[in-house]
Amino acid sequence: MRRFKGLLLQNTLKRKVFTFIVVILICFLSGFLYTFYTTFKVNQQINEMFTTSIELDKMNNHMAQFEMALESYLASKSSDSFVLYLDNYNALLSFSNAINDSDNSENTSLQMRNIGKLLNAYLEVSEDAIEYKRGRNTERYLFAYSEMLTIGEYIDQKVQKLESLDFKINLENYMQLTSKFSEIQMRLIVIVILLVALSLFFVFSFSTNVTSPIIELSKRAEDIASGIYSFERKKEKHFKEAEVLKDTFYDMANHIQEYISELEDKVETENKLRVSETEKLKMQYSLNQAELMALQSQINPHFLFNTLNAGMQLAIIEDADRTAFFLENLSSLFRYNIQSLQNKVRLDQEFDNARKYYELMRVRFGEQFLFEFELDNAVKDFEMPPLILQPIIENALIHGFKNKTEAGRIKILAQWIDDKVQVDIVDNGEGIEAKEVQRLNLGDFTRLADRGGHTTGLGLGNVYERLRHFFEVDHIMHFESVLGEYTKVTIKLPRRDVE
Question: Does the pTM of the predicted model rise above 0.70?
C-alpha cells in the first residue's frame, strides 16, 4: 500500500502512464455507464408504453376462451370445458384484482378500474349462469348467459376506447422518446468528442513531457561533439527518470570538462618542463660557450701566471713599484676570469675584480676614465654568478665613450632596496637609442652578440642569461638611457635559498 502511494506521489514516468490509463478508463467507463443508464430508462419507458395494451390483449384472449368454455359446459357439461372455464376464470379474476388494487389516479388507470369492476360483474353473472344450469332453470341461466355476453360486449367497447386513449398517450410518449433519443445521441457525440479531445490532450502532454528532455539531451550531445562542455542547467519539471538522466548527463559533461582541463594542465606542465629543459640546455650552452671563450683567451694560464710573477719580482728588484702593482692586478684579474662560470662568488669579490679592472684601465688610459664604487656592507656577502660587473663595465667603456672626448665617469653602486640587492652601473657616455633600449629591456641582445672587444669574451646576453637562470627570474636587468647624456644598467637580484 505504501509503495502504491509512493508511486502516485512521485513524478515518475510510471505514475504518468498509470494516471493516463486510469483517467482514460474512468472517462470511457463514465460514458458507458451514462449510455447504459439512458438506454435502460428508454427501454423501461417503451415497456411501460405497451403494458396496458399487452394486458388488455391478454384479457381479451382469456375472455374469448372463457366464453367458449362456458358455452361448451352449458351445452354438454363436459369436465374439460369446466376445467378450461376455471382456468380462464382465475386468470380474469387475477387481472381484475390487480387492476382494482392499483392506487394510480391517472385517466388510463381509472378506465382500467372500470373495466375491472365490469369484469367482476362479468364473472359473477357467469357463476349465476352455471348455478342456474345446474338447477335446471333454463330461463334463468339463458338470461344470465345473455347478460354476461352483454357485459362482455360493454367490456369490449371499454377496451377499444381505452386502447384508443392509450394509443394517443403512447404516441405522445413516442414523440418524447424520439426527442430524447436525439438528445441522447447529441450527448453521446459530445461525450465521444470530449473523450477524444481529452485523450489527445493526454497523449500530447505525455509525449511532450517524454520527448522534450530527450530532445534537450540530444542538443547537449551535439554541443559536446562540437567541443562545448559547460551548460546552463534549466529548471524544468520533467518526470523523475528524465531528471535523473539529465543530471547524470550534465555530471558526465562536467567530468569530461574536468578531465580535459586536467589534460590541458598536464600538457601545459609538460610544455613548461620542456621549456625549462630547453632553457637549461641554453644555459649550459651559454656557459660552455663562455668557458670556451675564456679558455681561448687564456693561452696556457700557468705559463702566463709564472711569466707575470717573474715580471712582478723583476719590477720589485728594480724598485718599479707601479709596474709591480700593475702586474699584480693583471694577474689577479686573469686568475678571477679563468674560474668556472658555474661557481658562486660574493658581491664584494665582484666589486674587487671590478676595481682591479679599473686600475688596469687607469694605467692604459690615465685620467680619461673615473670609476666610483659604493658597496653597502649589508650586501657584500650576497652570492651571485662570477663575471657579471666586468662585462657591463667593458661594454660601457668600449661603446659608450668611443666618440666622446671629455672624461668618462662610471659609478657602480650596490644596496638593499625592497628586499632585493640592486646593483646600478651608470655612465655618462653617448647613450643608447630608445628603440635599442626597449629591445634590450625585452631581453633581446642579438645586435650586441657580434660586437667584440671584451677581455672576457662575454657579452651582455651571456650575463643576462646566467643571471636569469641562476636566480630563476625573467627581466632581471633593466636599461635606461638618454642619447648624449647617460646610460644606466640596473640589476635586481632576489634572495635565492640554495644550500
Answer: no
